[in-house]
Design a protein that fits this description.
heterotrimer; A alpha+beta; B mainly alpha; C mainly alpha; B: mainly alpha; MetI-like fold; three-stranded antiparallel beta sheet; 11 helices; C: mainly alpha
Chain lengths: ~525, ~300, ~325
């Protein structure tokens, strides 16, 4: 028995030593927390936003997109010249950029990358725009590159800058058709950015270290970056608050509010190029009527949703262009919460509670139909579930019965793409070039993402002419009109534009940090420690 | 006799619970009267519902009456109101706190338990019926049919059950309570089938059956009337164990996000949602977890005492 | 020998049956289609078709099944979409994480379980026995995911004694040997405890029952009647006979640990088999899902086989069957 006690104490002591034993290494690093891992170091196979955020720190693009989403500053390209008719751009590349294996980065790499981007075998997610708009890319010599466009349009630089530049001498080794079945590119990625990949343990940690051969010897300032992957959100948050993690993207508003006064952390808020909406499927008889859709927009108390669920961390959305985007029409005011007006519009559209059961009804095709429908949304997004519940309560006050169905993401997407739903609560991330054709054009009803089957010939015409207009200020006038049409038709009820809240520890010098909708690591190489 | 009385008592309390769950809950489990002011209240919090003459209601966390006015505090604001305008004050007690949408945890747990229990009980009943069916056919016909059925049973038994259930549940769209029950019962009948078959084969050789056969009763009638009831009885012991097991499985599925979807609460998905905000609201997973454990415990205990009373 | 051979052939047959069922199941279920669609309004049907063809998903199902069988026979078990590697490599990588938690949990559950079971049986009927039996029943009924959450809440959030996630610290590579072991143990402690507790309770209950059965056997009673030394009776006669059935449990518990790992790895963010399963399902990487299900089925069959063989070695009566 005595031995038992001894054993017990011994194990207790070991436990306590275990628990208290942590060793510090030199604090010249920062740790970024993430709930998801990246999917590949091959940029053409990656799909997630987070992967792109990280890849942008290790691969150089031709130019850097600025925070106005319109202008570009030189990066790999020292400068560029437009041809007289503007269908061709000549890029002059830097001569002092080397891949991490010592080979020089040249225009031939860019030429090869273009081939990759447009290859059907690679099937890059963003390939379509590039294929449609760019005729060819040709390297004249190591530092001179010609990009020839099929026609003139405002986003020529955006498109060519979307092409990731990868080392030809590495990627050539594997035929395109093998790429999706080959883990070769993930083992020792060869890159040319301010950071290089030191290690990648799937699902655990990614380590980036300073690229000693980076062309600008002043950067990066912080020599080591760790990305710690912890799928569990609250777990991650705890580590952030404990100081074990220095940067944490996408913090829930309620948490940010609670820890606002914590001396060790700081929260950076910025508007995100995205919006949340409810799409009313017009294949459903109920939503085919414009007045009904307007009534629904009047009948949902979005301000309360923003206040209660998002703790004020959102801006009301009015159009498919977020308010920080240059094409946004700032004259449009959000639909105010006005249940009376909503009721009036509904009764104008023929919806009355004729049988006194509290639910509106209407005779459609000689059949009495109750105003009942199902709203679908995806399960992963906790906020959406809460928003859906709030909307359910609001609509009930109008005499509308809404059921909520929550699907796992892939199932959810299948429902959307098959147009198999009544109403959907979801969000779009907005591309930095304005084009609404994929969402609202009549041609996108069958195959594209016009999931609500919205059709308005006037919109189609205006959108088509606005999208190719080269003069952005003229285009803006057309875009304003386009948004007015959408505003009046309300194919979606635009809810809000989320505000991104990122946490950052006091160890990092805030003055050096810039975060924006392009990336929360936008200028990671310029960050400094205190 | 004592054992049977215990089982009866538990069965009755489960039935009572299932029929009265909706009535005894103090608050609405799906929607909160005031999302803003009642959210994230810790256990044993009190709140007050002030009803005005106009019929309007507000929810406050604190109030005091002073000089003809009633001063109140809400989560983010405070105010005062003339006492004359006030109609009544109702005290609300949230014993187990509220969640991030201002819903009472106790009510949700009681309400959600209904689904967990129904799924557990119905699935095991179906599984039992199926197992009995397969076992009886196998035992009655014997020969090649028996061989095929038992091989199939073996294949299903060799699967790691949770993996298989997870895969099937996750890949089936439009998950409803019924499809979940169906899947859970489809993957739990195997042991019952084996059990019933073995009993069936044993009974077939018993003297009283041989005697019945010798009087010339038709085989099917003997099987249905005399063998089956005797073969089923011992298999019944497995039911409570199975109910507990399925409730656990369901809660794991819900926890992983593949089971019943919110806003319908089940114990599993309540814990799953609670886990996401564990730091700020630690009290959310406590009660549902205790109730899952308690229910499974009772089921295991029943099977323990029935087993003991048989040996 | 004949018995073992027969069981072996039987197991191979079973594995093949399982492979067919798994594949058919996944292909027949209506919703299983490849979708690599993220919230990207620019992705068109054409792109989806291209991606599908890059993965060989546009071929008829019969051809896909044959291709897949070929993959099984070569030992690849197919090709993972998300990891771009043979499934077997993914499984082997995550297996090491799962075993890092699983083996300590296994040792814990058998070690502690057997000890408690023996103590409980020796004190049969006493207060201590009654307390142990009822607490074992409680432990046995607690869902492991809830136990995990409570342990995290207590030991990581409140007392900050153990890290709540992962298998090692981010600076693991820079630590010296002893620090590495410390670091690993710190990370393993909570998940292994969570994973091991319910089986521990089950094993303790089982051990207690077999102990009691042995105690009631006539030869033990004779030994006691003969007046043999208490210790001799216990270590020579009771213990070996009681532990034999417990050891055969080993094979049967392998699948339970794999099933448990699904939940534990999800809670503690450990990149093991269980987490791979859930991830592969969420990302629709069906070759990986199928591969893992198949692999774990093999392990279940293997576990049963080992159990049978162990039993037949220890208990000659079985062999006669």
């Amino acid at each position: 028995m005595r031995i038992n006690h001894l054993l017990f104490f011994l194990s207790l002591i070991t436990l306590i030593t275990l628990a208290s034993c942590t060793k510090e290494i030199e604090k010249n690093y920062i740790i970024i927390g993430s709930t998801i891992d990246i999917d590949s170091f091959n940029p053409y196979l990656s799909t997630s936003l987070f992967t792109q955020d990280l890849l942008d720190r290790v691969y150089l693009r031709l130019a850097t997109e600025q925070e106005d989403y319109k202008t570009f500053t030189p990066l790999l390209a020292k400068r560029w010249e437009w041809s007289k008719d503007s269908t061709q751009i000549t890029f002059y590349l830097r001569n002092d950029v080397y891949w991490t294996d010592g080979v020089k980065t040249t225009a031939y790499d860019v030429e090869f990358s273009f081939k990759v981007a447009t290859s059907p075998e690679v099937a890059w997610l963003n390939a379509e725009d590039i294929i449609r708009n760019i005729e060819f890319v040709k390297a004249l010599n190591e530092t001179t590159l010609i990009v020839k466009y099929r026609y003139v349009y405002p986003y020529q630089l955006t498109d060519i800058n979307d092409v990731w530049i990868i080392p030809r001498h590495i990627y050539e080794k594997v035929p395109f058709s093998e790429w999706r079945r080959n883990g070769y590119f993930d083992e020792k990625p060869v890159t040319n950015g301010p950071y290089k990949v030191a290690r990648w343990e799937r699902g655990q940690v990614i380590e980036l270290i300073k690229n000693e051969n980076y062309f600008d010897k002043n950067y990066p300032k912080i020599p080591r970056i760790f990305v710690k992957i912890v799928p569990n959100e609250s777990n991650l948050l705890l580590q952030f608050l404990n100081g074990e993690i220095d940067v944490l993207p996408s913090i829930p508003p309620a948490v940010a509010e609670k820890y606002e006064n914590n001396p060790n952390v700081k929260f950076i808020k910025y508007p995100f190029l995205a919006y949340e909406y409810i799409g009313w499927n017009q294949r459903n008889q109920i939503f085919a009527d414009k007045r009904v859709r307007q009534a629904l927009s009047y009948g949902i108390n979005v301000d309360e949703i923003i206040k209660v669920i998002l703790r004020g961390n959102a801006v009301r959305a009015t159009s498919p262009f977020p308010s920080i985007f240059w094409a946004h029409n700032e004259k449009l005011k959000p639909y105010p919460y006005n249940p009376e007006k909503a009721k009036k519009l509904l009764s104008e559209a023929g919806w009355k509670d004729s049988d006194g059961d509290g639910i509106l009804d209407k005779i459609i095709n000689n059949k009495k139909v109750d105003f009942k429908f199902t709203l679908i949304t995806n399960a992963e997004n906790l906020t959406r579930k809460e928003v859906a519940t709030a909307i359910q309560n609001d609509l009930l006050k109008l005499g509308i019965k809404m059921e909520i169905q929550v699907f796992e993401f892939n199932t959810f997407m299948r429902h959307i793409l098959n147009r198999n739903f009544d109403a959907v609560l979801s969000g779009w991330r907005v591309a930095t070039k304005p084009d609404l054709a994929t969402l609202f054009h009549s041609e996108a009803i069958k195959t594209g993402h016009n999931i609500v089957s919205y059709s308005n010939p006037y919109f189609d015409k205006l959108n088509d002419s606005a999208a190719v207009l080269n003069n952005l200020s003229q285009a803006k006038i057309l875009w304003d009109k386009v948004q007015e049409i959408i505003y009046d038709d309300q194919p979606y009820t635009f809810l809000y534009e989320p505000v991104r809240i990122n946490g950052i520890s006091k160890r990092i010098d805030l003055k050096t940090v810039r975060m924006n909708s392009i990336s929360f690591l936008y200028n990671l190489h310029e960050w400094e420690l205190k | 006799m004592k054992t049977q009385r215990k089982i009866l008592a538990i069965a009755i309390s489960i039935i009572l619970y299932l029929s009265f769950a909706d009535i005894i809950i103090p608050f609405d489990p799906i929607a909160s009267p005031d999302k803003q002011n009642l959210s994230n209240l810790p256990p044993f919090s009190k709140a007050y519902e002030l009803t005005f003459e106009t019929g309007e209601k507000i929810f406050v966390l604190n109030y005091r009456i002073y000089d003809g006015f009633i001063y109140y505090d809400q989560k983010f604001s405070s105010g005062k109101i003339e006492i004359k305008k006030l109609k009544k004050i109702k005290t609300l007690l949230f014993i187990f706190g509220t969640d991030n949408l201002g819903r009472d945890v106790l009510s949700r747990t009681i309400y959600g338990g209904k689904f967990s229990l129904i799924i557990g009980i119905l699935s095991s009943l179906f599984a039992f019926l199926m197992g009995t069916f397969v076992g009886t056919i196998s035992g009655y016909f014997g020969g090649i049919i028996d061989k095929i059925l038992m091989r199939a049973t073996d294949v299903f038994l060799a699967f790691p059950k949770l993996f298989l259930i997870l895969v099937i549940v996750a890949f089936i769209p439009n998950q409803t309570i019924f499809s979940l029950i169906l899947i859970l019962s489809l993957l739990n009948w195997m042991s019952i089938a084996r059990f019933v078959r073995a009993e069936f084969l044993r009974l077939k050789e018993m003297e009283f059956i041989l005697a019945l056969e010798s009087i010339g009763l038709p085989g099917l009638r003997i099987a249905m009337k005399h063998i089956l009831p005797n073969a089923i009885a011992p298999a019944l012991i497995n039911i409570p164990l199975m109910v507990g097991d399925i409730i656990l499985t369901e809660s794991i599925l819900s926890f992983l996000g593949f089971g019943i979807q919110p806003p319908t609460p089940t114990w599993g998905n309540m814990i799953s949602e609670a886990e996401k905000s564990l730091i700020s609201t630690w009290w959310l997973p406590i009660l549902p977890g205790i109730l899952i454990s308690g229910t499974v415990l009772i089921m295991n205990w029943i099977s323990d005492i029935t087993f003991e009373s048989r040996t | 020998m004949g018995f073992i051979l027969k069981r072996l052939i039987n197991s191979i047959f079973l594995s093949f049956g399982i492979a067919i069922v798994v594949f058919l199941l996944l292909r027949i279920l209506p919703s299983v289609s490849f979708s690599d669609i993220y919230l990207n309004p620019r992705l068109s049907e054409e792109m989806i078709r291209r991606i599908k063809s890059a993965y060989g998903l546009d071929e008829p199902i019969s051809i896909q099944f044959l291709n897949w069988l070929k993959e099984i026979i070569t030992g690849n078990l197919g090709f993972s979409f998300i990891y771009r590697k043979p499934v077997i490599n993914c499984i082997m990588e995550s297996l090491s994480s799962t075993l890092t938690i699983g083996i300590p949990a296994l040792v814990f559950s058998f070690g502690v379980g057997i000890l408690i079971g023996i103590q409980s049986a020796r004190n049969r009927g006493k207060l201590i026995d009654r307390i142990t039996t009822s607490s074992l029943l409680v432990l046995y009924s607690i869902p492991s995911f809830w136990l995990g959450i409570i342990l995290i809440l207590l030991f990581s959030y409140t007392f900050r004694l153990f890290p709540p996630s992962g298998l090692h610290s981010f600076n693991f590579n820079e630590l010296n040997f002893f620090e590495k072991i410390f670091d690993l143990l710190r990370h393993i402690f909570l998940p292994a405890l969570t994973l091991g507790t319910p089986p521990m309770a089950a094993i303790a209950r089982f051990t207690r029952n077999t102990m009691l059965k042995v105690l009631s056997q006539t030869y033990i009673k004779t030994a006691i009647a003969k007046g043999l030394d208490q210790k001799t009776i216990f270590y020579r006669h009771i213990l070996p006979n009681a532990l034999l059935p417990v050891i055969t449990l080993f094979g049967l518990y392998l699948p339970i640990f794999f099933a448990g790992s699904i939940v534990i790895e999800e809670i503690f963010s450990i990149p093991g088999i269980g987490k791979s399963t859930v991830d592969s399902i969420l990302q629709r990487d069906y070759p990986l899902t199928v591969g893992i299900t198949l692999f774990v089925s093999f392990i279940v069959i293997l576990g049963n086989l080992i159990s049978d063989i162990l039993y037949s070695i220890f208990d000659p009566r079985i062999r006669l069957k």
